Amino acid sequence: MKTFSTIFFSKKGEDVAIAVLRISVAVIFIWFGFLKVFGHNPVADLVEYSMAPSLGSGNGLLFLGMAEVVIGILLALNRYLMLTYSLVLAHLAGTFSTFIFGWHVVFKPYFPVLSLGGEFVVKNITLMISALVILIHEERKQIINK
């Protein structure tokens, strides 16, 4: 008799769960990226205090948005894994740098109390780590299937 745990924790269940996670993260990247492409950046203050403040507005914002859309598309297509890894790691570095350069924007009124922007950064780090887990899983799957 198949139970929830024998189905969900099987190799097939793992593959399905990773695929659902991959598509979910891809949709979020594409959605957030298009918001930036069309000039909507609710986190401009966070980007301003990252390692790349020029990405917070103008052409920089357009570039950041397009990069996020590309990451989302690459995740959805599940192709070009090394390029996707590289883009995800660069994005993760930029996101994490807000903790270093924008300490006063992330924590209000003081550490460890997160501002709304700080909660966004923490959520974003979780998305980025999820993307890396997906990519590692897919890379391992490709190696095993060769």
Q: Helix share of residues?
A: over 70%
Shape: globular
N-to-C terminal Cα separation, in Å?
33 Å
Number of helices: 7
Briefly note the structural class of the backbone: mainly alpha
Q: What count of structural domains?
A: 1
β-sheet strand percentage: under 5%
**Main β-sheet: number of strands, strand sense, barrel status?**
none
The overall strand count is 0
| Overall average pLDDT | 87
Structural commentary:
With 146 residues, the chain is an all-alpha fold. The protein has one domain. Helices cover 77% and strands 0% of the residues. The protein is built from seven helices and no strands. The radius of gyration is 17 Å and the shape is globular.
Offer a quick outline of the entry.
The chain has helices at 4-8, 11-37, 44-48, 58-77, 81-101, 103-106, 116-145. The chain is mainly α and 146 residues long.
Set out the fold topology:
Layout: H1 4-8, H2 11-37, H3 44-48, H4 58-77, H5 81-101, H6 103-106, H7 116-145
